Amino acid sequence: MRKRFWLVLPWGDNRILLPKSSYSLKNRAYFFLVLSSIIPLALIGYISYISMISLLNNNIDDGIRSNMKQIQISLSNVFSNLEDSALQLAMYNGRVADDIETYIETKDILTKYEKKKAVIESISLINAAKPDIGLIFFYYANKHQVMFENQSVQDGFRLTNLPALASGINATFYGPHQTMKSTKDSNVFSVARKVNLIEGADLYVYMETSIKLFEDLLKSQQYKLAVTSIMLNSQGKIMYSQGQKDFPLGSYVEISKLNETGKSDSIKKGYYVFAEKGEQGWYILSAVKTKAYSSDVRKWFGKFALLAALSIAISLLLGLSIWRIVYRPLRTIHREISLMSHNKFNSELKRTGIIEFDSLLIQFHDMKDKISDLFVELEEKERKKRVIEVEKLLHQINPHFLHNTLNTVQWLARMNGQDEIDRLVALFTRVLHYNLGKEGGIVSLSEEAEALQNYVDLQRIRYAYHFDVQIKVDPELGDVAVPRFIMQPIVENAIYHGLKDESGYIQIRAYEEAGKLTITVQDNGAGMTEQEIERLLEPQADAHKKVGMGIGLSYVRYMLEVNYGSMASMEIRGEKDQGTTFKLTLPISRA
């Protein structure tokens, strides 16, 4: 069995009992307004978040890759220039190679001087053509001897002491490392290319170029976030690093991970690492901290969260405003209902300024006016009914005393053989019993017709059968309910006011017409004018007291109003010396 719980809701001066399953309109308004704000914000936020991440990340990725590609191309060109220049000096059977070979093999001092001069001139030509190339010399590895240098070289030069970056055809690239010039004033990239001359001679041409171009390229990168640039040799060893703390020189990076992903978060925890491979086999890396990488997204998310909170706050304020807009008219409507419940129907219409509520209040006031009119009408009907009952009681005598007296008269008439008197008293007794009875105000049509027949027979005896009365009732309508004493006042009026001679007649008919009970009382008497008809229907007309039972036609009209309202009607048609016709129309109601 389901249990129900109740709560008491205060409203104005009243307390309303409501089930606890009821919901407050205010809470509902807040809930749906906040929900209507959150759902679009959540959908827009989700779509924007996905789009923003994709857009920002793609922009960052594209920017980093573009700059790295530029660095890779520039460095590849630097190393290609070094390699081409070294090839010119180390070309087999070239003029420079011949001069070097002659210089090494000859013992003639003059010849040595000339060949040395010729080689240095060739080096100078390369220096002039490519000013970015600095130190150039030949290194005789067998003897650890430096020859034909264009600038002074440090003592103890060894190729094996240089940090190898990558290897090409008969050439090895080094760097970044300090220059081999004795001044040690800069960092350089270098190349050593083998020169095949005398059999067994291990001779190399060595060239350097500054890394200033490389460093300038790194400084010119515009990422809008901190990027750490790293250079690896072909084995993954870090040769250059802008972040010594997390990417120290000499440490190694797994090349396979770079080749597999391009952008990887597994190289170093907390970093995204981008990679570009140079033509000579070295790598350029750009490492971005994951927090910095997503900082724009977090900033956007913070702004969006602030906007969402602001939107929800505005929704709550709108909900409060809407509640106030709705609550005041609701209080006005509740006040109107409360006044009506206390039978106060004359309150002034107070408009709310809202079309929908004003329309509702106007309709409510119209309904209240109609209810007030109905109450007035009901009170008037009750008053009329009481007036009728009082008038009826004023004209009644003690039924028991009257019946007992008439029974005594009837008994005496029978004992003396007065049959006519016996019949007259019997009829009169039945008429009095019906008219003064207490059985109720509603009887069947057959009972009303029977009582009317007794009354007519009584009047015939009284007037010695000087008129003819015909009563015709449709047998199928015998059980139709009608007010007691509804036909007799009309027939009584016809007898007392209509008939003037012995040829008079009264015809009473009861039949169904248009779905209603129709009762007509027609006489051929003196007739009536309109003024006489109006006077006859007046509640206090003197004609009441001049007829048999003293009730009159106003009783009939009141009974129709009390029992049927506008659904019943009484019509009187008469012309002077042409007779009078009474027509009653009642709804058919079967008891």
From TrEMBL:
* GO terms of molecular function: ATP binding; phosphorelay sensor kinase activity
Give the first-level EC class, as a single word. transferase
Transmembrane segment boundaries:
29-49, 304-326
Q: Name one Pfam family in it.
A: His_kinase
Report keywords, A-Z.
ATP-binding, Kinase, Membrane, Nucleotide-binding, Transferase, Transmembrane, Transmembrane helix, Two-component regulatory system
Catalysis: reaction(s)? ATP + protein L-histidine = ADP + protein N-phospho-L-histidine
Q: EC number(s) in its UniProt entry?
A: 2.7.13.3
List each copy of the Histidine kinase domain by range: 486-590
What is the name listed in the Swiss-Prot or TrEMBL entry for this protein? histidine kinase
SUPFAM superfamilies listed in its UniProt record? ATPase domain of HSP90 chaperone/DNA topoisomerase II/histidine kinase (SSF55874)
Which InterPro entries does the record match to this protein? Bact_2-comp_sensor_kinase, HATPase_C_sf, HATPase_dom, His_kinase_dom, Sig_transdc_His_kin-like_C, Sig_transdc_His_kin_internal
An example Gene Ontology CC term for this record: membrane
